[in-house]
Amino acid sequence: MMKILLLEDDRILCDSLREFLEFEGYKVDVAHRGPEVFDLTFTQKYDLYILDVNVPEINGFDVLSALRESGDETSAIYITALTDINSITKGFAIGAEDYIKKPFDPEELLIRIKRKYQNDDVLLYLNDIVYNPITRVLQKEGQTIGLGEVQENIFHTLIIQQNKIVDSYTLMDFLEKPTANALRVNIAKLKNKLSIDIKNIRGRGYMIEKI
């Protein structure tokens, strides 16, 4: 069983992520402060670190930097609200392998984990469509289909959250001129291009149902 160490000071989010990952079959230990990571890694070996940055006493950047200096090369993913390019660059320079911006859907985190350890499980299927959410390669009947940036982002967001309603405003963020009508047009084009059903949940958003 894969062992994960999760550093997150938001206890509600931490408990939610732990329960989600444990349901998916992972063993998860949690830390709420930077120094707790050192205590746990001193006695145990982990397969993956999931680290928030803004945590008490020692931030996530310094935690991973200290681990790397000690020779610990365990894979690491940052989860953080910091979105500026300097923070992202710093995270990768220290030795993180991935970086997820808050807020995020737990399914997105699961996909990133599977990319590293269970690559075959990453692929998503819908009718005659095979989609890799990491590379964003979409194949229909064995042929690669290009969607363009806007429709690709809409499709990606909907398919990684199959059976969940995605708020219309979330999807409109992908549009150059975000309006409800422009979103409907792009959804219609997606449906026609891929021959898929995208449900309009009136007053709430859109959803792709699992087959």
Task: Write a structural description.
Helix 6 crosses helix 8 (180-194). The chain folds into two domains: 3-120, Response regulator (Rossmann fold, 3-Layer(aba) Sandwich), CATH 3.40.50; 123-207, Arc Repressor Mutant, subunit A (Orthogonal Bundle), CATH 1.10.10.10. It is elongated, with a radius of gyration of 19 Å. The longest helix is centred in the C-terminal third of the chain and has 15 residues, at 180-194. Strand 6 (124-126) and strand 7 form a beta hairpin. It starts with a strand and ends with a strand. 24% of the residues are buried. The chain has helices at residues 11-23, 34-43, 60-69, 85-94, 106-117, 149-159, 168-172, 180-194, and strands at residues 3-7, 27-31, 48-51, 75-80, 98-101, 124-126, 129-132, 137-140, 143-144, 166-167, 199-201, 205-207. A five-stranded parallel sheet has the order 2-1-3-4-5, sandwiched between helices. The chain is an alpha/beta fold.
